[in-house]
Write a structure and sequence with these properties.
four-stranded mixed β-sheet; binds pyridoxal-5'-phosphate; 15 strands; 468 residues; seven-stranded mixed β-sheet; single chain; 14 helices; globular
């Protein structure tokens, strides 16, 4: 079983990604471009079309962000949130709640990574049902191929093949986590079906699984609104999320969205923070939502759990105390920086910019790669979040054998052409092909869009030759 994505060169002291070799190292970043040191050579002006891991909303070295960091560091006094709160974490929670549809959320908890946010959400859900005197509601329902992070609880929630080798340390997923189909229109919508029919089929299947697994034991349905690293920005078919919301209402189940990668402004215009706002009415908001990545735009490690009124009220009507807390939860400095970053994004309406430019990039990729390349099967996404899926055969959608490492190889070809993208391997069982993931900074311009598209076209042509 392959766990790591790709192999690089030279000895590394950092126990991460590749332990025996040293890969490219970023040495500097300004705006959308980064400088990389690789094999002793300096590569300047590499276009960062993935912003780390869909993180850098403001671009690198943003002067205002650096000033915010300085101010925030001077203003921050560390506090242990179980004993004493701090103003920055309160202000950030207020900002997120006020900039979400009215009534969607009523509290937030801040932590340091997306994985941790999902761990915290699990713990909060458990306590929620205990507060209500429903101790048997423990099972999760999460989707094939899903990815919710690499801590053990978050892995237990996931069905991505990368999780399998860690099975002995995970929660008993056969008992606790019921696998439900992913929503993957490109591969699984039947030709004769409309998008709505496909969504209906998925919802009917979900309802059957809820009923056959005893709804009184089911805690939550967990879905990535727009899966990123798992399936590659595949948008939910029309009516799908609404259908899940309705089933959750019907069977008293938490509707839980993971927006760590797709949320916090990456996929919506007009300052709208939540990706689900593209697909759901405000009254259908999730009960719990996890966020991360663009929240701190890479300037600070921060992620969070947003909590809907139903859950907060159960605590208010119950013990009034949230059990558990981490030393660095709601860290004043990180919350202060994230707030400043989000205020700047809002003031400059950068969400509308990335929405418009990202969609333009998507259209141009469709018109070039999808229309003309033999190895590109699909180009999909929304706003600032796009994927290209590679296939061996466009007619049958047969993926490449994963031993060819097409996704990681594409990343390497792009790098040689001065473009940084995420190259993801396909699933070993062929249920998903290799992908390239694009998540540019919110400050992207039309000129940069053209630069990305040009470099993608060149890189796909070179990879096609390499694969012959
Ligand atoms: N959830 C989703 C949907 C993600 O895409 C990721 C990371 O890519 C995570 C959770 C985990 O976040 P982190 O890497 O910050 O722990």
């Amino acid at each position: 079983m392959t766990i790591a994505n790709d192999i690089q060169t030279e000895q590394s002291y950092v126990f991460q990604a590749s332990v025996d070799k040293l890969g490219p190292q970023v040495t500097e970043g300004k705006g959308i471009y980064i400088t990389i040191e690789k094999d002793g050579k300096i590569h300047k002006n590499v276009l960062d079309a993935i912003t780390g891991a869909a993180v850098g909303a403001l671009g690198w070295g943003d002067e205002e962000a650096l000033e915010i960091m300085d101010k925030s560091a001077r203003a921050s006094t560390y506090s242990y949130p179980c004993l004493i709160s701090n103003k920055s974490s309160e202000a950030l929670a207020k900002f997120y709640i006020e900039n979400s549809p009215e009534g969607a959320f009523s509290a937030a908890l801040w932590c340091s990574s997306g994985s941790e946010s999902n761990e915290n959400a699990l713990r909060i859900m458990r306590q929620y049902y205990l507060e209500r005197g429903l101790p048997n509601k423990v099972k999760l329902m999460s989707r094939e191929s899903s990815y919710h992070g690499f801590t053990l609880g978050a892995q237990s929630m996931s069905w991505n093949p990368r999780v399998e080798p860690f099975e002995p340390y995970l929660m008993d997923r056969k008992k606790i986590n019921i696998k439900i189909p992913c929503a993957y229109t490109y591969r699984y919508k039947k030709e004769e079906e409309t998008e709505e029919d496909y969504a209906r089929r998925l919802i009917d299947d979900l309802e059957n699984k809820i009923v056959s697994n005893d709804p009184d034991t089911i805690a939550a349905v967990v879905v990535e609104t727009l899966p990123g690293s798992s399936l590659g920005t595949t948008p939910p078919p029309k009516g799908y999320l609404k259908g899940i919301r309705e089933l959750c209402n019907k069977y008293d189940i938490i509707f839980y969205l993971d927006e760590v990668m797709c949320g916090t402004g990456r996929c919506n215009p007009n300052g709208r923070l939540n990706c689900w706002e593209n697909y759901l009415d405000p009254c259908d908001a999730p009960d719990i939502q996890t966020v991360g990545k663009t929240l701190g735009s890479g300037y600070v490690p921060i992620a969070g759990v947003l909590i809907g009124p139903k859950i907060k009220n159960a605590f208010l009507n119950g013990s009034k105390a949230v059990v558990g807390g981490h030393t660095y939860s709601c860290h004043a400095f990180c919350c202060g920086v994230a707030l400043g970053v989000q205020q700047k994004i809002k003031r400059e309406n950068l969400t509308s910019n990335v929405f418009k430019m990202g969609n333009l990039m998507g259209e141009k990729l469709k018109n070039t790669l999808l229309a003309k390349s033999n190895i590109v099967g699909d180009v999909r996404g929304v706003g600032g979040f796009w994927s290209v899926e590679f296939v061996k055969n466009r007619e049958t959608k047969e993926p490449f054998d994963i031993s060819l490492g097409v996704g990681p190889r594409f990343k390497a070809v792009c790098f040689d052409n001065g473009l940084s993208v995420m190259g993801m391997p396909g699933n070993p069982d062929g249920s998903c092909g290799d992908r390239a993931l694009l998540a540019p900074s919110f400050i992207i311009t039309e000129e940069v869009v053209d630069d990305i598209v040009g470099k993608m076209v060149k890189s796909v042509a070179e990879l096609t030759d390499e694969l012959k």
